[in-house]
Design a protein that fits this description.
This protein is α/β, with parallel strands linked by helices. It has helices at about 10-20, 50-55, 95-110, 150-155, 210-215, 220-225, 230-240, 280-300, 310-335, 340-350, 355-365; strands at about 5, 25-30, 45, 65-75, 80-90, 110-115, 115-125, 125-130, 135-140, 140-145, 165-175, 180-185, 190-195, 200-210, 240, 250, 260, 265. It has one domain: FAD/NAD(P)-binding domain (3-Layer(bba) Sandwich).
């Protein structure tokens, strides 16, 4: 029986591991951090994922996620548009969800090592992985190591050579945000999302051009001098209890195109491609990509006539067909955010041309699977 090694224990990695081990495929997963831990993430999941998660008995109802069916969009100067979310979604923290999926993976028989994989080599139809503690061999490798990793450098991926100007900042807060609403608030050269998660908390997460931070000196000053220009954001920051001592941050978030297969490594989740956060659908894409990849790997492991080349081609075509257009639309939509004129234009359009607004939202989301 062929064995699979998964590098990265986020949504895509954990869900792929669970699906494969339930199909009697030996799985080893490497995650350098110890659960539970926070990740910079909007922590909203589209309801397109519900049939799949429920089919695996992996919808986290016991964690009491918030149920979201309304959307608000505001411009830099505080103009607002409100829309129903026809499909809707739910809010849950990565701290809680990833930890629970990790526990499920262990229970199902996934071998988990908390070590960082530093090098991948492929030779004679076999992989060799190096960590700080060991070296192992594997038939297949799934790369689910997130938005940006040292392994991207090791593999010589083209996107990693391009500097990205974006930083991400996340807080958990206690505030008066409506439990059924996800809101997206523009500010100069960025935007901030807020929605409720479990236990009455709200996730406050924003993407900013690094020039905002460079010009103001630190995160707190940047927020006061730039984000506060939007009255909705000023109200949130001044009328909330911040749970974290310091925000979670990430630098150089890249939305460049990536290949779903690199040097025979099968990429999944953000490692395969990342949709812009304003679309609010990165977690759903990670979940769906795990389903697509797992089905391909199960076929490869059960059919001796299904070659590695056929596996890689088939997965690339399936991933591209499902996600490439959505990521491309997301990159184009992002150009309309973070400036006075365009943010007002988009809010005005959302208010007066609601069918068009719903159409654009639908182009960044998939159908239930």
């Amino acid at each position: 029986m062929k064995n699979v090694t998964i590098i990265g224990g986020g949504l895509a990695g954990l869900l792929t591991a669970i699906q494969l081990v339930r199909a009697q495929i030996p799985v080893t997963l490497f995650e350098k951090r110890h659960y539970p831990f926070h990740r910079v993430c909007g922590e909203y999941i589209s309801n397109e994922t519900l049939p799949f998660l429920k089919s695996l008995n992996l919808f986290p109802e016991h964690l009491q996620p918030s149920h979201i069916n309304k959307f608000q969009l505001t411009s830099i100067n505080g103009k607002a548009a409100n829309l129903p979310l026809n499909l809707g979604g739910f809010g849950i923290s990565r701290y809680a969800l990833d930890h629970w999926l990790y526990q499920q993976a262990l229970q199902d028989g996934v071998k988990v090592f908390h070590e960082e994989v530093t090098k991948i080599e492929y030779q004679e139809n076999q992989f060799e992985l190096s960590t700080s503690k060991s070296t192992i061999s594997s038939d297949l490798i799934v790369g689910s190591f997130g938005k940006r990793s040292r392994l991207d450098i090791n593999l010589g991926r083209s996107f990693i050579k391009k500097r990205s100007p974006y930083i991400g900042v996340k807080y958990h807060i206690l505030t008066d945000h409506p439990p059924d609403l996800i809101a997206l608030h523009n500010f100069k050269n960025g935007y901030c999302g807020i929605s409720n998660i479990e236990d009455g908390k709200s996730n406050l997460c924003y993407l900013s051009h690094r020039d905002n931070l460079r010009n103001t000196g630190n995160i707190k000053t940047m927020e006061e001098e730039i984000l506060y220009k939007n009255p909705f954001l000023k109200h949130i920051f001044q009328n909330s209890d911040f749970i974290f001592d310091e925000p979670e941050t990430i630098n150089e978030i890249s939305f460049e195109s990536k290949d779903p297969v690199e040097h025979h490594v099968l990429m999944c989740g953000d490692a395969a491609g990342m949709i812009t956060p304003l679309c609010g659908n990165g977690m759903a894409i990670a979940i769906h990509s795990s389903k697509i990849l797992s089905e391909q790997i199960i076929q490869f492991c059960s059919n001796p006539n299904f070659t590695r080349g056929e596996l890689e081609d088939s997965y690339t075509k399936a991933w591209t067909s499902q996600f490439a257009a959505r990521l491309r639309v997301g990159r184009q939509l992002q150009k309309l955010f973070g400036a006075n004129v365009t943010s007002n234009l988009v809010v005005g359009m959302a208010r007066s041309l609601k069918p068009l607004a719903h159409y654009l939202i639908s182009k960044t989301h998939g159908r239930p699977f």
